[in-house]
# Entry
Amino acid sequence: MTGDINLPLVTVVTPSFNQAAYLERTICSVLEQDYPNLEYIIVDGASTDGSLEIIQKYSSRLSAWISEPDMGQTDAINKGFARAGGQILAWLNSDDTYNPGAIREAVQFLTDHPDVGLVYSDANFIDARDEVIGTFPAAQTDRTRMLRGYVHIPQQTTFFRADLWKKVGPLDPTFYFAMDYDLWVRLSALTPLVYFPRRIWANFRLHEDGKTVASDERCWPEMLRVHRREGGSWFSIIQMKYYLRRLLSPLINRRRKAMFRHTT
# Structure
């Protein structure tokens, strides 16, 4: 589904496993982008819930797709990027969606700023019915802040250069949750990560089966692994934030459950 060869080729990878309830909306949000030089790859982990039929429905408009057992989301993303031919890369999980114009605007920014290796923007939180239920707290960050736990990068909105991926990739398959944080930290050693404000490029879906809700407690320990690998101290801001998060987790979980009862 590539077009104008004068524009950088963008590769979007969607990893998926048993997300038939949301997958078609994700696919359509990519295919309906107004950017003409796009490579779209779906990597499915041998789903059994009807996802394969949805992928086959759009197969003629995909650059590639596979459906086979894998070792999880991180493995699926790595498989997709191993097939990628784009100069700019992104991944969009199979329960999230792009907003119109997102890819075009991101490419234009990276074209106008050749010194920037990754750009990201704002994202909405949406529920299972696509209703907006909040806003991701996106903000400009940098390597120092990220290593303190101030990430502020919604993964759904990120676009980064393939030549940098080749230097720091692939994603670490031992990470279940914080593989994106790990990638941002590695990229930040090579390039500025720039926030493009006041544009909502994507929607981050929160639902009861999503791992952000179901397995949130696994995120901070993985982030701490990155922090310590990079020479971080046990007596640090990110370590204190982890302890605070553990203390507040019962309240956070109760609020999330109440939110889902309200939106279902």
